[in-house]
Amino acid sequence: RGAPRAQGARWTEPGCRSCACHVSAPAARPRARAASPLSALLPVQGGRVLCEPVSCPASCSHPLPAPDGGCCPSCSGCLHDGVARAEGDVFSLPDGNCTVCVCLAGNVSCISPECPPGPCPSSSAADCCSCQPAKCNFHGRTYVHGARFSLDGDDCTTCVCQGGEVECSFAPCPALDCPQHEWHLGPGQCCFACRAPPAPSGCFVDDNGVEFPVGQIWSPGDPCELCICQADGSVSCKRTDCVETCPYPIRIPGQCCPDCSAGCTYMGRIFYNNETFPSVLDPCLSCICLVR
């Protein structure tokens, strides 16, 4: 690469390649010509450079990556699960099973706690040791830890097995907003409930307590409007549409639609069909109502 290297020199090239200068014996030179200092360092025959990849001894099981500019990893510390640990560092695993690890000479050694077999010594499990909570013997039956069951078929009482002991409690009931004499306990129910109000027997239409029976039809004051009492106690009303089919309809008080067959209207008075009456304009004339 344009730079002189002495015989036997070693150096590292980029890419972690180790190179060395190997020089063969120089050829005989005339005695009359003295060698210069530079010619003694730069052999002119047989000089060659041999390069090979840098060899790194694997001296530890968890080596750290090579530092910047270096080729071989370092064993002064440990690399465990992608995390660099210093020499002598003591740490625990992230899964929380209480295993303790230590970094020594580039190697990671882990030790797990020894847990005694059998049930847990108390109702709460140990922090590190996994154990089997004690079972519950209740009324001749065995239940595992955490099991929930009813008391002798009573669905209103719930029991739970906790560390060898059974705890029972009643089902919570909501507060009722009705008087106590209206409380009702239905079959298969655990809590009282308010009795359902009786079905309506009619419809109340005003503040005076007037009640119409179910199915009753009446007019609320307008002869063109009819109302009916529904089975659920509600009132349904509907107006009547009148169609006048004669040029001189007769309006009868209390009747919604004009009547074309009732009679005739003459000078503000109503006369029935075939009824005769004197003319207002001429008393000698007699008029008759004819309904067509």
UniProtKB/TrEMBL annotation:
<keyword id="KW-0964">Secreted</keyword>
<feature type="domain" description="VWFC">
    <location>
        <begin position="134"/>
        <end position="195"/>
    </location>
</feature>
<dbReference type="Pfam" id="PF23334">
    <property type="entry name" value="VWC2L_2nd"/>
</dbReference>
<dbReference type="InterPro" id="IPR001007">
    <property type="entry name" value="VWF_dom"/>
</dbReference>
<dbReference type="GO" id="GO:0005576">
    <property type="term" value="C:extracellular region"/>
</dbReference>
<keyword id="KW-0732">Signal</keyword>
<dbReference type="GO" id="GO:0098586">
    <property type="term" value="P:cellular response to virus"/>
</dbReference>
<dbReference type="InterPro" id="IPR052080">
    <property type="entry name" value="vWF_C/EGF_Fibrillin"/>
</dbReference>
<dbReference type="Pfam" id="PF00093">
    <property type="entry name" value="VWC"/>
</dbReference>
<keyword id="KW-0325">Glycoprotein</keyword>
<feature type="domain" description="VWFC">
    <location>
        <begin position="201"/>
        <end position="261"/>
    </location>
</feature>
<protein>
    <submittedName>
        <fullName>VWCE protein</fullName>
    </submittedName>
</protein>
<feature type="domain" description="VWFC">
    <location>
        <begin position="1"/>
        <end position="76"/>
    </location>
</feature>
<dbReference type="GO" id="GO:0005737">
    <property type="term" value="C:cytoplasm"/>
</dbReference>
